[in-house]
Write a structure and sequence with these properties.
Length: about 250
């Protein structure tokens, strides 16, 4: 559990019987008639590390937007952290999103704030006490290897370091799940592997990781569970898999 930083896979052991993500017959059709997802069924248990792959337009972005309740499906059920998102009241959405850490390809850091302030801001907006912020932020910066960069601005950091700040920020509320949407898309190969190793470490502490990616090399080397989308359909759900189906 990231909050304790001392109990590997504690969350996975505590909730092994409860999937963190469940999709049941999920379909998503946009008003223009485009079918983004069709009859998707998937269950991701606590502690899993899953790659979401597929060509551009396959439905990966819609898949992620449904998980954070940015959109609701036109059919089927999406259940995250035991909550049916279609039954979630609007005022409950922020609390749900605190259970989900999100990391994007473009970092989305606040340029005028330091590393410490970028991470702290995610706590401040939820009303965290100053003592909690002073305790929590250094913990997370140490986890991502940026304890010596707390006073730096994003422009003083490399791309990999900026992504580490984004990961620390995503973990401030000790989420049950971390969604990484193309987190290595703007990084060179060496730095990409450093970010992957960090995600593996976070997964080892009990956080479920779902990573959308086009990086075939990483997926092929990792041999984790792969969800493959094509034209909105889940065409493969395979453990220990490569980016493409192996015959």
């Amino acid at each position: 559990m990231i909050g304790a930083l001392t109990r590997p896979r504690a969350r996975a052991q505590e909730a092994a019987s409860q999937p963190v993500i469940t999709m049941v017959d999920v379909g998503m059709t946009y008003p223009n008639g485009k079918v983004a997802l069709a009859d998707v069924n998937v269950a991701i248990p606590a502690g899993d590390f899953v790659f979401l792959v597929g060509p551009s337009g396959a439905g990966k972005s819609t898949f992620i937007r449904l998980l954070i309740r940015e959109q609701l499906p036109t059919s089927g059920r999406v259940i995250v952290a035991s909550r049916d998102l279609s039954r979630l009241r609007r005022r409950e959405v922020p609390r749900l999103r605190r259970r989900i850490g999100i990391v994007f390809q473009d970092f989305r850091l606040l340029p005028a704030k330091t590393v410490f302030e970028n991470v702290a801001f995610a706590l401040e907006v939820t009303g965290a006490a100053g003592s909690e912020i002073r305790r929590r932020v250094p913990q997370l910066l140490n986890l991502v290897g940026l304890q010596d960069h707390a006073d730096h601005l994003p422009t003083q950091l490399s791309g990999g370091e900026q992504q580490r700040v984004a990961i620390a920020r995503a973990l401030v509320h000790d989420p049950a799940m971390l969604i990484a949407d193309e987190p290595t898309g703007n990084l060179d190969p060496v730095t990409s592997w450093e970010i992957i190793q960090l995600l593996i470490q976070i997964n080892g502490l009990g956080t479920t990781v779902l990573m959308a990616t086009h990086n075939q090399e990483i997926v092929n080397a990792m041999r984790r569970r792969v969800l493959a989308l094509e034209h909105g359909s889940l065409v493969r759900d395979e453990s220990g898999a490569a980016y493409e189906r192996e015959y």
